[in-house]
Amino acid sequence: MDSRRRVITDAAVLIEGSRITKVGKLSEVKSGTQPEFEIDAKGMLILPGLIDTHVHLAQALLRGCADDTSLIDWLQKYVWPLQGNFDSQDGKTSAELCMLEMIKSGTTTFLESLLHTRYGFDGIAASVETAGMRGILSKTVMGLPSYGSAGGIMHPGMVEDGETCLREVEEYFKRWNGKANGRIRVWYGARSLGGCTPELYKQIAAGANRLHTGVTMHLNEVREDGEYTKREFNKLPAEFMDEVGLVGPNVVYAHGVWLTEKEWKILAKKGANIAHCPSSNMKLASGIAKVPEMIKDGVNVGLGCDGGPSNNCYDMIREMKIASLAQKARLLDPLIMDAETVLEMATIKGARALGLEEEIGSIEVGKKADLVLVSLRKPHLVPPFNPVSHLVYAAQGSDVDTVIIDGRIIMEKQSVLTLDESKIIQEANERGPNLLLRAGLQVKPKWEMV
Ligand SMILES: [Zn+2]
């Protein structure tokens, strides 16, 4: 993944400090260099760390709690009551569980979309620092406990007021933005349509301009978004967002399933980005975003795994395959969304969406050393005809062997060095059922567990 899209065989990468200083054939990279430390990557694929542009860290603890439900029911009956009962230790455990899964499946950078105050922003940011990942943490900004025109439906434990949210974004920004050698950034996480007044969206846009930071928000995930803006403002959702000043290169819209051509042309013209989450959209039966059409018209599209109850995993390798297959089936066109296109979405286009194109997303001299080694010595990854095809169509997250972020080895031989995996799994196994109890909910599998 470089500007020429070369696949280099018998290759090596030299890292000095946190950056890549040489890339090429092993003999070229080694000549005149005495590395202090070498990783033998024979039989492995070296690729840029994967970039997940839409993640809910606080939903890993909710995995499997609300399957086979539509979005509004899913939110109102399960996800909000559970998250509305979170305490900061639940937030931390969930974030760590999520990061473990991301690291183990080759994700090195993520954009967290909506951190409510009760999840414990400082604890989560400290966990990102410890885990060694590159993460953008978006603090929720909301003013109304609503989704679209469905007023007052949000669980009271989730409700926050606009002024406090705006103040907290600035506080967290001061405390954490640029910390951990620049690995942590703080953005605005605007709540979906119906969750903010037009005035509040304008304040978010102004705040992001003042702090030179980004904004992320769910948009056009469901058809109801368009019905809401039509009724309230006589506009399409993206037209409305443009009017409140929230369409620009520093904005990532999650989903965009129901965007019309008119809307994605506005996004393309102004450089706004889409985080495409095909598994979540198909599982919640929201639809399939018109990604090839958007890309053709110049929209920058990254890829996202969304959350534990919607996907239900945070595995970008699996997501790449689904992103490709969904479009082929939708358009009855096997030529559409080839493996190369989805690998770009999961790497360099994701980097561009996050404003980090100069730093990450490809293996090039001068960029941050965020690298993933995938073992190809597996029955499902031979013979070696086309490594890009193998990675997208045949590999799985658990084929990732080694993860390097910011020049530091975070995972070696499938063992995460920065987080205590068994402790986190034990905590999550205890905290998940406790959370259900506090929320007064039961998850009843259709088949009796005896
Ligand atoms: Zn989401």
Task: Please render the helix and strand layout as text.
Layout: E1 11-16, E2 19-25, H1 26-30, E3 44-48, E4 50-55, H2 71-83, H3 88-104, E5 107-115, H4 121-131, E6 134-141, H5 162-176, E7 184-190, H6 198-211, E8 215-219, H7 223-233, H8 237-243, E9 251-255, H9 261-270, E10 273-276, H10 278-283, H11 291-296, E11 300-303, H12 316-331, H13 339-346, H14 348-353, E12 371-375, H15 387-394, E13 400-405, E14 408-412, E15 415-416, H16 421-439
Parallel strand pairs: 4-5, 5-6, 6-7, 7-8, 8-9, 9-10, 10-11
Antiparallel strand pairs: 1-2, 3-12, 12-13, 13-14, 14-15
Helix pairs in contact: 3-4, 3-16, 5-6, 8-9, 12-13, 12-15, 13-15
The structure holds zinc ion.
Residues 54, 56, 113, 218, 254, 306-307 line the site of zinc ion (ZN).
Detailed description of the structure:
By secondary structure, the chain is of the alpha/beta class. Helix content is 38%, strand content 19%. The strands form three sheets. The chain has an eight-stranded parallel sheet. Helix 8 (237-243) runs parallel beside helix 9, helix 12 (316-331) crosses helix 15 and helix 13 (339-346) packs across helix 15. The mean pLDDT is 96. The site of zinc ion has 7 residues, from loops.
List the main descriptive attributes of the protein structure presented here.
450 residues; alpha/beta; eight-stranded parallel beta sheet; 16 helices; globular; binds zinc ion
